[in-house]
Amino acid sequence: MKRSNLVILIAVGISTLAFSSCATSEKTEEKANSDVLVSNAALDSNEVANALPFTIEFVEQNYGAKAALPSLQSYASAMNQAGELFIAGGRRQGLHTFNPAPANNFVKDSANNFLFIIDPVAGDQWSFDVNQLGDELSAPLQSTNLQSYHDEASDYMYIVGGYGWKADGSNMVTFGTVIRFKLEDVSAAIKSGASASSIKSMMQIGKDDRLAITGGELFMMNGSFYLVFGQKFDGQYRAFGGTDFTQEYSNQFRVFRLDPQTLKVTAYGATPNSGADQPFHRRDGNILESIDPATGMENITALGGVFRPGIIGGYDYPIYISSPSGVAMDSTIHQRFSQYECPVITVYNETAQDTSVYHTMFGGISMYYYSQTPEQRAAFDTVTAQGRNDGLPFIADISTFQKSSSGTYQEFIQSNPIPGNRLLGSSISFIGNRSLEAALMAFDNGVIRLSNVPTGERILAGYIYGGIEAQYPFPSIPNQGTWVSNTVFAVYVTNSPAGAIPASFGKKARNGAPLTRLPH
């Protein structure tokens, strides 16, 4: 990967951590061209040579005169066999607002009412309006921060929960639903322009209030579903109080099976918090499928998440889940970057010298930051002088969090930030290239097996699409300055070492200020 010829200095900024959503705009070419990194040397003197065993690149896609892709965040996604992206739910606007009643901070018409199929190579797209499916299906399929899982063995796609408007528009709820369909069948139907009745016949819905979760994640391990962390939020979102909503963090992960005929929940169990600081009191973090480097077995890894009880702050130590009773955590480990949901590319490297798993996180919202443009830094200085505490900053940094088989940890900042130093990545997940699994370059859960990639070979790891983008690390004017992106990045991993900057050079954002009211 080409390295920047500029040294990136530490700069400061704060923006609001919260539920994803609202406020559109477009970043102009003029502004993008003005984003020059704060610098004063030819190369970053903090970089350590060969700190990482792989090189990772993020290449923005350009589709020429093709119709613009939809701008979306907080959606459910999967990749079909043709390498196309399936997208459901989410929102068409940036960060939601924080206005008091009677304002609707989640505007009704910002919900995404389409299922999309997107060709990330050619930029072609196909869509289907879910309002044609009837209220029972259409309302949860338009929710935000929903959970989903695609079981490639059966081709069933499962969509669970999510926060959205009721079909009658009277209020917002977290849906206690699971929707199941065959990904290939629905993809083909949308692309061929099939009728609404035909697509509806492909879908099945089940209902159970124990599935009413938003901001968590859904996985399958050893034949059971794991619904990990998140919350149930019913009513209108308010920043720090109000009487027109109820909120309950799950404070647990739920393990269950589904009756294959009826989708009724069976064999249900829940593992609750255990720890003084309520470690499971998390939502909207990076919860992902991974590999335990000590055993080579799959697990669920939780990095970050918000909010710690009583403060505007994220969790900074990881949790590892391998079974309903298999939970490991170490609160002495402190992850500096990307506490809020963002794309994470996971690489497992097994060598004679060391076996480690690497999680590379693309921007988002973070407790620490490193690179910043003069304009971004000036916005921070202005707002800081006002004495505002808006939470944690949107960042352009790409970081890598490493765990070794011996249980040691390291964290690095990639030498290049997001192209253009864009404050991008919040409220979306990485969409992995499933063809790597058949080539044995990835595990069945999508984790890249670096030792199976020939030395020097460059592979397509997957795609990053959309997400919240911010003008500044935190808004110069409250409730303004964010929008939703439609950018697609192709992510490439090469089996050759790369330099990186120790995360200790990052600067901590203002975080953990006590509040008189509990943040959401």
Structure commentary:
Residues 1-23 form the signal peptide. This is DUF4374 domain-containing protein. Keywords: Signal. With 520 residues, the protein is mainly beta. The protein has one domain (29-508): Neuraminidase. It is built from 6 helices and 36 strands.
Secondary-structure blueprint of this entry?
Elements: H1 29-34, E1 48-52, E2 55-60, E3 76-79, E4 85-88, E5 114-118, E6 125-129, H2 135-141, E7 147-151, E8 156-160, E9 163-165, E10 172-174, E11 177-182, H3 183-192, H4 196-201, E12 204-207, E13 217-221, E14 224-228, E15 231-235, E16 245-249, E17 252-258, E18 265-272, E19 286-291, E20 298-303, E21 319-321, E22 327-329, E23 344-350, E24 355-365, E25 368-369, H5 374-385, E26 394-404, E27 409-414, E28 423-426, E29 431-432, H6 435-438, E30 448-449, E31 458-465, E32 468-470, E33 482-484, E34 488-494, E35 498-502, E36 507-508
Parallel strand pairs: 23-30
Antiparallel strand pairs: 1-35, 2-34, 3-4, 4-5, 5-6, 7-8, 8-11, 9-10, 11-12, 13-14, 14-17, 15-16, 17-18, 19-20, 20-21, 21-22, 23-24, 24-26, 25-36, 26-27, 27-35, 28-32, 29-31, 31-34, 32-33
